[in-house]
Amino acid sequence: MKLTIVTYRDIFLWSERYKENGQPAAALVRLSPKDLADLGIAAGEKLKLTNEEGSIVVDVLAEPKCPSGYGYMPVSPLVNRLTTCRHGKLPNFKHIEVKAEALES
Amino acid sequence: MSAGEMVCTACSCLCDDIEIEIENGRIVSMEKACRKGTAFFFGSENERLRTVHLVDGKQVDTDQALAAAAGLLSRARRPLVFGMDNASLEAQRQGIELARMLGAVLDDSSSFCQGKLTHDILTGTLPSCTFDQIHDSDLIIYWGSNPHNAQPRHLSRFSLYAHRKYHEMGATRYVTMAVVDVRESETAGAGVAHRFFRILPGEDSNFIAAIIEGIKGNPVRKDASGFLKLLKQSRHCVIFAGLGLTYSLDNDFSLFYEMLKHLGGWMKTFVIPMSGHYNVRGFNYSLYNATGCVNKVNFAGGAVSHGDEFSLLEQVKNRAADCLLIVGADPFSSLPISVLKHLDGVPLVTLDPFRTATTEASSVVLGVSLTGLESGGTAMRMDGTTVTLMPAKWTDKQSDVQILERLKELLRP
Could you report the predicted ipTM of this complex, rounded to two decimals? Predict the structure, then answer.
C-alpha cells in the first residue's frame, strides 16, 4: 500500500533526548482504521516503510481521525532515513511517500 | 541554597518566570517550567549528556581544542558557518563577525523553517505584533502549529489563557481560538480550540485560495466558508504561523499574503511565526542588521552575497563546503540522512553544551556552558521582544561567546 507520511512534533520524544538511556518512541506510525484493515494488521503490530531513500520498521497505532492514505509519524532521526530534499525545495517532512508492508508477526 | 527566577531557553517562548533553587551547585527544584524546560535543565546536570572538548574523539583542554578548530577553519577554502539559533545575541554577533572574517557562507535553520516570514516582518512587508498586543485581539489562529508539543506554555502564558478578555465559559467569550491543521492535535482537539478546521496534508494553498474566493463573494467549499464567517466576525486577529503552513506552502507565502491583503479591508491581522529554537528570531535580526539578509549569505571575497545556493541544504547537497563550523545546532538529528551523507569526509567543528548526533560526527567539539542556566546574555523571543538571560548557577565551562571570541583571535589575519 502507498502511504504519505506527515511528521509532527512530539514533546515526549524531545524530552527523552535529555535523559540518559531514554527510550524515545520514534518508531511508530498512526494510521486510519481503514488502512490498518486493508493492510491486514492490528494496532501494535509492525509495518515496514520503504522508499528510494531507505527502509524502517515501525509500530502501528490506530488514529480514527487520520485520513486514509496518510500516516502520522513523530519528527526524529528515524523518519529522516526516509526524507529527502529536492533542489530549491524544503525537505519533504510533511509529504514523505512510502510503500507500507505488514511484517509477519 | 540560592533561589531566584530565570529565563528558560528550551524554546522561543523564553518564559522569564521560571523559579529555580540551586543547592551545592545542583538544581533541587524548578517551578513553572514545562516538560521541555524541566527535561532540558535537569538533563544539563547529567555530565554524561554534556560535551567536553574533543579532537578526533579524544578529550583535550580548551587551548588544544581551539587550536584544532582554528587549524581546520584556516585551512578550509570554502568554510560554512551554521546555526547560532541556540546562542545568545552576543554569541551571534561574534559568530557573524567570525564568518565574515573567514569569508564563509553563513546560514541557520531559518532557511528551512520560518526565515521567510521573519524576513518579511523585519522588512515591514508582513504585519506582526508582540505578545502584549495579543490582548487587543478577538481571534487567535494557530495555523499548522501545535504549541502543546512545540511551545508548551504558549497558550497559558502568552495567548488564549493569558488573554485579558478570555472567558472560560464560551457563551460570553470575547476571544475565539481557531486551529487550522492536518491533524487533530492536542491544541486542535480536547476542548482547547473553539473551532478546528481540518484540511488534508498539502491542502493549505487550496484552502487559502477558497477563502480568497469567498471574500470576493464567490461560492466556496464548506470549511472555507465557515472559516471566512469567523474572520468576518473579527476586527483584530493574530495568526500563529507554524511549520505545517510553511512546509505545505513550500515557503511560497504569496497566496497567504494575498489573503491577508483582502482581510485588511475590514480587520487588522498580525502574524507571529512559531519559531522553535530559543533565539532563531534573534539570529535573523542580528544578521539582518549586519548584512540586510536574514540567512543564506556568503562573505567570500569580502563582500556580502545572498541566495538559495547559500542555504545549508544546498551547500551540503552540492558538496560546496569543505569545513563546517556548527554553533548550537544539531542538523544530524533534524535533517534528511539522504542530504547529510554528502558530509562524509567533511570536517565538522561543533560548539554545543550537549552531546548530540552532530557532536558525535564532529572532528572537533567545543563543550560550552548552557546559556540561560550557566551563562547570561540577551535573546529575542519569537515575537521580537528582547529578553535578558541571567545565569542561575556557576560553571567552569566557557560560554559560546567566549569560545567564539577566542576562535576569532586565533584566526585573525
Answer: 0.93
